[in-house]
Amino acid sequence: MVFLWLTSAILCSILMQIPTFILSSFLTIKPIMIPNAASLHSAFDPVMGTLSGGSPTERRLSDMSGYYADTKAFDSLLAQGDALHYAVSAVAPAEGEGALHYAIGNLLPGRVGREYFMTKGHFHAWRAAGEYYIGLSGEGVMLLESEDGTESLLLPLTANAAVYVPGYTAHRTINTGDVPLIYLGIYPAQAGHDYGAIAERNFRHVVVDVDGKPVMMAREAYMGSGMF
Ligand code: S6P
Ligand code: ZN
Question: Can you list the domains of the chain with their CATH numbers?
Answer without folding.
Answer: 44-223 (2.60.120.10)
